[in-house]
Here is the input.
Amino acid sequence: MFGEQEGEIAVKAARNIVEAKVKGDLPPDMDFPEKFNINTGVFVTINRYSSGDLRGCIGYAEAVYPVKDVLKKAALGVTDDPRFPSLDEEELGDIIVEVTLLTLPEEIDYKDPKQLVNKITCGVDGLIVSKGPYKGILLPQVPIKQGWDENEFLSYTCKKADLPPEAWKEGGCTVKKFRGEVFTEEEPYGKIIKKELN
Here is the structure.
């Protein structure tokens, strides 16, 4: 869907927006390729370079706005991920910026939980689990980083939705999958590569 050149543009743009926000500057004006006018989901993740720990992850899975707009919104939001203290200027040299560009989520048609497990693949698919007002999203790279299998991936996505971990086995949940192309800095301000998940 997106090539390495577009991935590099996305990560550099996210880095520039994050830095401007943290320093109290206005987001820079940027030129984006034509492909960034299509509507698709985007997540911006920041990890600590020194430890590899998550420092923030904000994004939008539904394809409502163009990539360039969603990228800006996610990059602005990731500096204030409510799970963490706001990012400060001293941390900018110890973060890795990562951008995940998503395909459109597709609802998985299944009759029983065994079918569901067989229709997802860790390291390939991201998941959205929803039930009533509850919704949880986990990106394709998460189960690889955590060492989860497909059962655990489903359970942790339920937990992310504030549902019981076994909710996906009990029926009544809508499960969607999507794929993501992940582009990341190798080190702070370093070379940008496409991350192979599996």
